[in-house]
Write a structure and sequence with these properties.
Layout (H helix, E strand, L loop, with lengths): L1 E3 L5 H13 L3 E6 L4 E6 L2 H5 L9 E4 L21 E3 L2 E3 L3 E7 L6 H14 L3 E3 L17 H14 L3 E4 L6 H7 L2 E4 L7 H10 L3 E4 L6 H13 L5 E5 L17 H8 L4 E3 L1 H5 L2 H13 L4 E7 L13 E2 L3 H14 L3 E2 L3
Parallel strand pairs: 7-8, 7-14, 7-16, 8-9, 9-10, 10-11, 11-12, 12-13, 13-14, 14-15
Antiparallel strand pairs: 1-3, 1-4, 2-3, 5-6
Helix pairs in contact: 3-4, 3-11, 4-5, 6-7, 10-11
The chain binds phosphoenolpyruvate (PEP) and manganese (II) ion.
Length: about 350
């Protein structure tokens, strides 16, 4: 990583970028308020041949020691990334609340949920049209029809849409409606899929794999970032442990640890960790107070009739009260739930 002097001119910055590219590495420019950094991403021998120490405008050249280069805190000198997604901010002091059904089922269900969660203060709508199900015999999502329902819900509610992509063949259809592409826990290490969403340039919500370490999560994010897509949100959604009293163990420690390791925003999914409704509010409050940049939570107008994940879905009528509690918990960590 090349740290530029505060007095470096545009021309000197351009020259360094050209030099980086001339050795076959990729230059990654990061212009913060106080410091300009140029990451040189490439194999070790190429980068070693840069010879930029002492070049005009260059303060110094430092190696990024972590295996994940673009995701590391070092790249941004400790500043945290704030993303703006269709007018809705996430990161820094901006808390995002992403709410909606596990899966899109009907027009009425999707619209009712979208309008109700928006009125209660949610900043984005979630809902899957392509569902990663453990059983191949379970409902797999409505596919294109589901995407059309999400498009209508977006038009009617004004909320940005978060929806899952599982197969690169569905990318173009997903890009028509998704403001954020969700990569599910089971696909966290699907490297061709990660590279493809990296190239697509749309913000990505990357869920931690069921048994993945934080370093593996960050390396997966690196696959997206490496393609030039800087808009990655990490999601802790519970990991598999020896405990069987609930669906997964929500790793709250991951929140402050990720904050140390990466500049990327970190959200928490209490629904899939909990597996049941009664745990969703306490886990959400703990996550918000621990400094998460947002929550992605399942909500349904009629959870008893939900096709999937009904037992963990919040009732729509309970959602406004839930939002008030989450706002207070986020405030403990100095974050504000921004209105859309
Ligand atoms: C989901 O968000 O609906 C989902 C399937 O989550 P995960 O990939 O975390 O299991
Ligand atoms: Mn679900």
């Amino acid at each position: 990583m090349i740290v530029m002097k505060s007095t470096a001119t545009e021309e000197q910055i351009r020259h360094v970028i050209e030099r980086v590219e001339s050795v076959g590495a990729r230059a990654h420019l990061s212009q913060g308020e106080e410091v300009t950094l140029i990451g040189a991403i490439g194999d070790r021998e190429h980068v070693a041949r840069l010879g930029l120490e002492g070049a005009p405008g260059v303060e110094n050249v430092v190696p990024i020691l972590k295996p994940y280069k673009l995701a590391s805190t070092q790249l941004r000198h400790g500043e945290h990334t704030v993303l703006e997604i269709a007018g809705s901010k996430i990161g820094g002091s901006n808390f995002a609340l992403i709410a909606g059904p596990c899966t899109v089922e009907t027009h009425a269900q999707t619209l009712a949920t979208a309008v109700a969660v928006r009125d209660a203060g949610a900043t984005m709508l979630r809902g899957g049209a392509y569902k990663p199900r453990t059983s191949p015999y379970a409902f797999q999502g409505l596919g294109l029809e589901g995407l059309r329902m999400l498009a209508d819900a977006k038009a009617q509610s004004g909320l940005p849409i978060v929806t899952e992509l599982m197969d690169t063949r569905d990318l173009d259809a997903i890009l028509e409606v998704a403001d954020v592409i969700q990569i599910g826990a089971r696909n966290m290490q699907n490297y061709p899929l990660l590279a493809e969403v990296g190239r697509a340039g749309r913000p990505v919500l990357l869920k931690r794999g069921l048994s993945s370490t934080l370093e593996e999560l960050l390396m997966a994010a690196e696959y997206v970032l490496k393609e030039g897509n800087e808009a990655v949100i990490l999601c802790e959604r519970g990991i598999r442990t020896f405990e069987t009293a609930y669906r997964f163990t929500l790793d709250l420690t991951a929140i402050p640890v990720l904050k140390e390791l990466t500049h990327l925003p970190v959200v928490v999914d209490p629904s899939h960790a909990a597996g049941r409704r009664s745990l969703v509010t306490p886990l959400s409050l703990a996550a918000a107070a621990a400094g998460a940049d947002g929550i992605i939570v399942e909500v349904h107008p009629n959870p008893e009739e939900a096709i999937c994940d009904g037992p963990q879905a919040l009732y729509l009528e309970d959602f406004p009260g839930y939002v008030e509690q989450v706002k207070r918990a986020a405030a403990v960590a100095g974050k504000v739930l921004a209105a859309v």
